[in-house]
Amino acid sequence: MSFFISDAFAEGAAAPQGDPIMGLLFPIGLVVLLYFFMIRPQVKRQKEHKKMVEALAKGDEVTTTGGLAGRITTLGDDFLTLEVADGVQLKIRRQAVEAVLPKGTLDAA
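Below the sequence we write its predicted structure tokens.
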């Protein structure tokens, strides 16, 4: 009697079920693809960044994730001091270092 909801009628016997292993094959395949295309490359990038941060040394020229470029003057366990201009020093986290620049890059700029 309702104009918006149609009546539901039974069709008969249910369709026969297939092999349950074949039903799991597609989701397992998706998880494997997700691992190889998303998770594995991200873990690799994280390891490379951690290795780069551990190898930082006094005098390295670096850029930060915020876009600052400068020379490392002091290093601590979690923080470092970055000289961005003559007499201007900033204290930042080591993890904020995005890349190490080749020597002399800041002098050329």
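The chain has two domains: 21-55, 57-109.
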